[in-house]
Write a structure and sequence with these properties.
With 504 residues, the chain is mostly helical. It is built from 23 helices and two strands. The protein has one domain. Strands 1-2 form a two-stranded antiparallel sheet. The longest helix is centred in the C-terminal third of the chain and has 29 residues. 48% of the residues are buried.
Length: 504
């Protein structure tokens, strides 16, 4: 009775109840698609428009119920589905992860990592691994989030608490990392272009936020662990679902398989090192760049991740006998896709909604309007910085892509902050906080649907309300503590990264 009270009480319980009264995610995305169509007509009818900060062109809401709009709805339905960004990422990565799972490799690894480890240490490791997975772009959503659930289930804890901890690290701490990720050069390029509006010779290196993001990695790990242990896990209570994950001691055969898998992994890494390390490596672009801009290596990240699971998984299976011939491998690949049927159906509807929302220009209008709002309130110093983080977080609820959003906001805010004496690198830093902290509570975030699909494996009654109410404490805690750290950095004038500064 007490556990039920903890789970359903308070504001989080109210959010969960309200959210779970919403229809199934597939139905909800269909309803949102219809609402977007109607809203596009209404906003277009009102003649609402904004001036694009980059092109200077007038951006008007597009009526999707016009003759051309209806034609696009039907003629581009298939491309909306196949072009839905998370679809290919999830399916390709799951091919490799699925084989590694079914051969027994992942379970054997979990035995080594989990058995005997303290719960709190496991929680911190899950959050930290989620943060570090951002080096591989979006692969963490597919790999780390379900693994977080499995790890907690094995420890006899609620698997949704593990899923939440991993999701918080992967998405809520998206910009933090000990290493440079593919996001750093992408944002730096947009920041430099915006700074050149006032200074034609201004340049921004990908490393300009690195020191701050290294510190942020430890902050998000600590805060994420605290929220999991003190708020999320107690609220979820004891797991009473039917799906039970159990681990026995590592067997002699599994130790042999792990050795084979390690050798296979090292050989695979060596192969990709051969393709990337030389200055003229095949996966470098024509300028010899590896991660700066759009390079073959960056574009190949998902299949690389898949192979890093697939090849060691096959090697493990050959050693322990779970792979006897090529038919076993083909069966494992097929089984991996069978389990993704629900997600594929969800991706079709979500893909239509995302396309409609982009076509309507409503997201762009919201972003530019938010920027104009900050320009008109005449704040300076810390209040301006805090408000900028909050507005960015709000816009992120509707326009999830970090690069697309920054492409719209940077030309407005980078010159504005430069005129107030703040360096473009610092403006980019503040943006990255707001862009990260609300990812985990936005149903419009592309990977939100796949997280729900993972959660439904353990609880068929999980809905949007369950996930939002579970992740909201992380979002609030990250926003407060990360912003406070930014303020401390600001007042102490600490270096934010090589080549970066707070003031011009």
């Amino acid at each position: 009775m007490e556990k039920e009270k903890i789970k359903s009480g308070g504001i989080l319980g109210w959010i969960e109840k309200v959210g779970n009264r919403l229809p199934h995610p597939i139905t909800l995305f269909f309803i949102l698609s219809v609402i977007t169509l109607i809203l596009s007509w209404f906003v277009s009818y009102l003649g609402i428009s904004v001036i694009h900060p980059v092109t200077g062109e007038t951006v008007q809401a597009v009526n999707l119920l016009s003759r051309e709009g209806v034609q696009n709805i039907f003629s581009r339905a298939v491309s909306n589905f196949t072009g839905f960004a998370p679809l290919g990422t999830v399916l390709v990565a799951m091919l490799g992860v699925g084989v590694a799972d079914r051969t027994g490799l992942i379970k054997a690894l979990l035995k080594l990592l989990v058995l005997g480890a303290p719960d709190r240490l496991i929680t911190a490791a899950v959050v930290f691994a989620g943060i570090m997975s951002n080096v591989a772009s979006d692969a963490g959503y597919v790999v780390l989030v379900p693994l977080g659930a499995i790890i907690f289930a094995v420890k006899g804890r609620h698997p949704l608490a593990g899923l939440a901890a991993a999701f918080a690290g992967v998405s809520g701490g998206f910009s933090a990392n000990l290493l440079l990720s593919t996001l750093d050069p992408l944002l730096a390029g947009l920041t430099a272009e915006s700074a050149r509006i006032l200074d034609p010779n201004y340049s921004v290196a990908p490393t300009v936020n690195w020191y701050f993001m290294i510190a942020s990695t430890f902050l998000i790990t600590i805060v994420g662990t605290w929220v999991t242990e003190r708020i999320v896990a107690p609220r979820l209570g004891k797991y009473e679902g039917k799906l039970v994950e159990k681990l026995e001691e590592v067997t002699k055969e599994e130790k042999k398989g792990l050795l084979w898998a390690l050798i296979a992994l090292l050989l695979t890494v060596a192969f990709f090192a051969f393709l990337t390390v030389p200055e003229n490596g095949i996966l470098r672009n024509e300028q010899g760049q590896l991660i700066q801009g759009v390079t073959p290596f960056v574009q190949s990240m998902v299949p690389i991740i898949a192979l890093l699971f697939l090849i060691p998984g096959i090697a493990f299976g050959l050693a322990v006998g779970t792979v006897r011939n090529n038919y076993d491998i083909a069966t494992y690949l097929s089984k991996s896709m069978e389990e993704m049927g629900g997600y594929i159906a969800l991706a079709f509807v979500a893909g239509q909604f995302v396309a409609y929302f982009n076509w309507s220009n409503i997201g762009t209008i919201l972003a530019v309007s938010g920027a104009e709002f900050l320009q008109t309130i005449n704040l300076t110093g810390i209040p301006l910085i805090v408000m900028f983080v909050i507005v960015t977080g709000f816009i992120n609820l509707f326009l999830g892509s970090a690069s697309a959003k920054w492409a719209i906001m940077a030309p407005v805010f980078v010159p504005l902050f430069m005129q107030l004496g703040y360096a473009p690198e610092f403006t980019q830093l503040a943006y990255r906080i707001g862009d990260s902290v609300t990812n985990i509570i936005s149903p419009l975030m592309p990977y939100f649907a796949i997280i729900i699909a993972f959660a439904e494996k353990y609880d068929k009654n999980v809905g949007i309300g369950t996930l939002i109410s579970t992740m909201l404490p992380y979002s609030i805690a990250f926003l407060i503590t990360w912003t406070l750290m930014l303020i401390v950095w600001f007042y102490l004038l600490l270096p934010i990264g090589p080549g970066g500064s707070i003031f011009l």
